[in-house]
Every structure is written in structure tokens, then in C-alpha cells.
Design goal:
- The complex is a heterodimer of chains A (374) and B (98).
- Chain A has helices spanning 14-36, 51-55, 63-75, 98-128, 132-158, 179-206, 219-238, 248-268, 271-277, 281-296, 309-331, 333-355, and strands spanning 38-41, 46-48, 161-164, 172-176, 302-303, 360-361.
- By secondary structure, chain A is mainly alpha-helical.
- In chain A, the strands form three sheets. In chain A, strands 1-3 form a two-stranded parallel ribbon. A two-stranded parallel sheet of chain A has the order 2-4.
- Chain A is globular, with a radius of gyration of 24 Å.
- Chain B has one domain (7-88).
- Chain B has one helix spanning 70-79; strands at 7-19, 24-30, 41-44, 55-67.
- Chain B has a four-stranded antiparallel β-sheet, with no helix packed on it.
- The radius of gyration of chain B is 17 Å and the shape is flat.
- Chains A and B meet through strand 2, helix 4, helix 5, strand 3 and strand 4 of A and strand 1, strand 2 and strand 3 of B.
Chain lengths: 374, 98
């Protein structure tokens, strides 16, 4: 008998009536919790790419490294990691300082959306491709991303935030990225993700008093997944030397600059989060840029000169222009419009200033593969 | 495919939504093997699909694919790349202040 779908008036015995009422109470309280939760619609984007080009990838030149990496991903060392155990401390969400709560929830929602979108992208590449090596890789990465998204979603639920997956029945447009841009952007995203997580993890190991949420304890194994995904993209790029030479080096420089600069700006917009972690965002930025640069030498023939005085000055200018732009947008009117144009021009100039700092060149190592060592 | 006209196409699809701890994902698969191209829009018909927490829901639905015109397809191929930074993860939304 399915008691949940029955009304107690349908009961034939008193015991059955009680059982139905009890079930109904449980059901009602669950429904009430769901309704009381703040609803956040996840809005992943949908992409297409040149799937024929993906299918044409031949991993033979890196076959040994490739097979080892895939075997490691198939063995799924983190399978049991994303479980809440006794290390998952209770959090007093209502007692959390309101600004910190806002910024931390922004962190959780953005991270969840990013993992979720990654999963959608990888799954699409897996489904549309026919090259066995490539589709297997994307399937494994989609698995990891969906797992990470589920883990963050659980933390969000504890905070009273429910994600809504109803976006599928809304109209969605498919945009297009060239495969090489997907490689540069996702390679860097995975590696900078690793560097960001491991830097926070090591910092909190030394300063556990700043660990205001248990999710940071999971960062180490989590970022090892990001690391392996980055390795896979490095090997994919290694299969075609054109991707990392000639005019593409200018693209690589663009992506490095854009990714580092965006990270700097976004981190500086979340002061309460970084203060609670006991992290100075300037120090954190340089740490992450240094680690990411060292790692990216495995495949990129250049690194940015992040020690140049022009680098930190340019980042600060960009950050100020971006903050002004936001204020001008909110101000509106003619004066707001003029300030907006001025702020936009300063942002573009600051970005160009960063881009044109001469890069450091180096030779690519014969073997691409790295292991997480930070 | 016309250069300026949209074509509508209906396709049966399978929607899978997983709202579990182990995996949070949502996918649409066209059952007739059709594929989408740059600039196309897809809408799955029927009421919003809500998977309660802890559950995976698979449903057969119908979707409308609005095929992009030739011009739109070309435009999307040329300009889509500008949005590629969306693929990067920075932990925070772009909102300047919260």
C-alpha cells in the first residue's frame, strides 16, 4: 500500500489511519521546507562547437600519457570523497554576519552554476562526438562536474537555498565557440580553479580558526579533479602543435590576461568573504597567478610577467574602472551615461595595458603531464 | 535553410533531471537523432519539470527547435567566441556589489 497517496479517511483500521496521518505530516513538513526555501533558478548556457574538429583529434602522439590519465579518471579515486561525514560541522546560518552570508551564498551558487554548466558542455561534447578517446574523456569530466554540483547543492540546501532546474522548459539559445577557445578557456579555468582551491586549503590548514564553513575541508580532493581535467586539456592541445604556436600565442596571452584580470576584479568585489577567511585578496591573487603560471608552462609557451610593477598597477586601475562603471550604471541619466563611457574607456585601456606587458617566453617541456604538488 | 527565415522543427526528446546528492545534472536528448546548430533555440514543451531533492526524473517530451536563419548562424559563429569567458570559473558572480 502506498500510504503517502491515501487520505486517512480511506483507512480501514485505526492503525492504518495513524500511519497515513504520520506519513502525511512528514510529507507536509518536507513540502513546507521546500516552499520556505529561497528559490534560485540555475541558468546554464548552451553551446555548440565544431564537432567534426573534435572528432578529428588524434591522441596517438600522447597515447601513453593519455591512457594513464584516463585510467586514473576511470578508477575514480574521489568516488567516496564527496560524502558528508563527521568533519561536516553544523553551521549557524542565521548567526552568520549578513554580508558574509550574502557573499558566501554567491560563492556557492556561482560555483554550483559553473560546475553545472561544465557538466552540460562536456555532456554535449560527449554526445555529439564519435571519437572514442574524446567522448570517454568528456563523459568522465561530466561525471565529476555533476558530482561537484550535487555536493555544493547540498551545502546550499542547508543554507535554505533551493536550486531550481526548471530552465529546460524555457527557450534556450545555443551559441558557438571554436574548439580551440574552449581548450584555452577550460584548460585555464580548471588549472586556476585548482590553484584557487589549493591555496585556500593550505591557508586554512595553517589557520583553521578562519574556516567558517566545512566545505573548505573538501577542497583538496575536489581540486585534484580540476587538476586532472586541466591535464586532459593540456594533452588535447599537445596533439596539435599549431594550437600553441604562431598567432595562437597571442590568443593564449589574451586568455591568460582575461582570466587573471577577471579573477582579480571578482575577488575584490567580495571583501567580507576574504576577510572571514583571513585572506588578503591581493596576496591571494598573486599566489594563484604564480601557481597557475608555473602549471601552464606545461603547455603554453609564454607566461605573464606578474611581477612587473605595471601588472599590479594595471589590475588596480581595472578594478577601479569596473567599480565606477557599476556606480554609473546605477546612477543612470545623462551624467551616468557620460561616466559610464569614461569608465568603460578606462577599463579597456587598463586591460590593454595589462595585455601589452611583454610576456616571458620559455621552451615547452618534452613531457606534458604534471601531478598536483602544491 | 533560408538566409533570413526561421524554420520550426518538432522533435521528440527525453529529459533527464537528477537532483541528487551524488549528481546534479539536467540533459535533453533528441530521440530522433536531430542536432542543434549555432544560433538555434530549443524549447521543451509541457509544464516545468521539477525533480524533488533526492530523485532522478526521466520524461519523454516534445521540443520545438527554432532553426536559426543562415545569417543568424553565420553571425553566431562569428561572434559566439566573444562570450567564451563564460566558460571560466571564478567562484563569484559578476555582480559588483551584493
Amino acid at each position: 500500500m502506498n500510504v503517502q497517496n491515501m487520505h486517512s479517511a480511506d483507512a480501514t483500521t485505526a492503525e492504518e489511519g495513524l500511519a497515513i496521518q504520520e506519513e502525511q505530516a512528514k510529507f507536509d513538513s518536507k513540502a513546507a521546507t521546500e516552499t520556505a526555501m529561497q528559490n534560485t533558478l540555475l541558468t546554464p548556457r548552451f553551446y555548440t562547437t565544431d564537432f567534426d574538429e573534435l572528432d578529428a583529434i588524434d591522441v596517438s602522439p600522447v597515447r601513453d600519457d593519455w591512457d594513464r590519465l584516463i585510467a586514473q579518471m576511470v578508477s575514480d579515486p574521489n568516488k567516496g570523497h564527496f560524502k558528508k561525514n563527521e568533519d561536516w560541522d553544523r553551521i549557524d546560518w542565521d548567526g552568520m554576519e549578513p554580508q558574509l552570508r550574502k557573499e558566501f551564498i554567491d560563492f556557492l551558487i556561482s560555483s554550483c552554476t559553473a560546475e553545472f554548466s561544465g557538466c552540460v558542455l562536456y555532456k554535449e561534447m560527449k554526445r555529439r562526438g564519435t571519437n572514442k578517446d574524446v567522448t570517454q574523456l568528456f563523459q568522465l569530466m561530466a561525471r565529476d562536474e555533476a558530482r561537484h554540483a550535487g555536493f555544493i547543492n547540498d551545502a546550499l540546501r542547508e543554507a535554505g537555498v533551493a536550486v531550481n532546474l526548471g530552465f529546460l522548459t524555457q527557450k534556450k539559445k545555443y551559441t558557438y565557440f571554436r574548439p580551440k577557445f574552449i581548450y584555452y578557456a577550460t584548460y585555464l579555468s580548471e588549472k586556476i580553479g585548482y590553484a584557487r582551491y589549493i591555496t585556500i586549503y593550505r591557508h586554512l590548514e595553517a589557520h583553521p580558526e578562519h574556516r567558517f564553513h566545512p566545505i573548505f575541508k573538501w577542497f583538496q580532493e575536489w581540486c585534484n579533479d580540476e587538476f586532472s581535467h586541466g591535464e586532459a586539456f593540456a594533452l588535447l592541445m599537445k596533439t596539435d602543435p599549431k594550437l600553441t604556436s604562431g598567432v595562437n600565442v597571442l590568443w593564449i596571452k589574451f586568455f591568460l590576461t582575461a582570466v587573471f584580470a577577471t579573477m582579480y576584479v571578482r575577488d575584490h568585489q567580495r571583501p567580507a568573504f576574504h576577510k572571514a577567511l583571513g585572506v588578503d585578496p591581493d596576496w591571494y591573487g598573486q599566489e594563484v597567478f604564480a601557481k597557475t603560471s608555473t602549471l601552464s608552462k606545461q603547455i603554453f609557451p609564454i607566461t605573464l610577467d606578474i611581477d612587473s610593477p605595471r601588472w599590479s598597477a594595471g589590475l588596480k586601475r581595472l578594478q577601479r574602472a569596473n567599480a565606477d562603471l557599476d556606480r554609473a550604471r546605477k546612477q543612470g541619466g545623462v551624467a551616468g551615461f557620460a561616466r559610464r563611457i569614461s569608465a568603460q574607456m578606462r577599463a579597456v585601456t587598463a586591460f590593454a595595458g595589462l595585455y601589452f606587458i611583454p610576456a616571458k617566453k620559455h621552451r615547452l617541456p618534452a613531457s606534458t603531464r604534471l601531478e598536483p604538488a602544491y | 535553410m533560408g538566409w533570413l527565415t526561421h524554420e520550426l522543427e518538432r522533435a521528440p526528446c527525453t529529459v533527464e533531471i537528477s537532483h541528487r546528492f551524488e549528481s546534479l545534472h539536467a540533459h535533453v536528448r533528441f530521440d530522433n537523432g536531430t542536432t542543434v546548430y549555432p544560433g538555434d533555440s530549443v524549447r521543451v514543451h509541457g509544464p516545468e519539470i521539477m525533480a524533488p531533492y533526492g530523485e532522478v526524473i526521466r520524461e519523454a517530451r516534445e521540443a520545438t527547435i527554432v532553426r536559426a536563419s543562415g545569417l543568424e548562424r553565420l553571425w553566431t559563429r562569428l561572434t559566439g567566441d566573444f562570450e567564451v569567458m563564460e566558460l571560466c570559473e571564478f567562484s563569484f558572480s559578476e555582480e559588483v556589489t551584493l
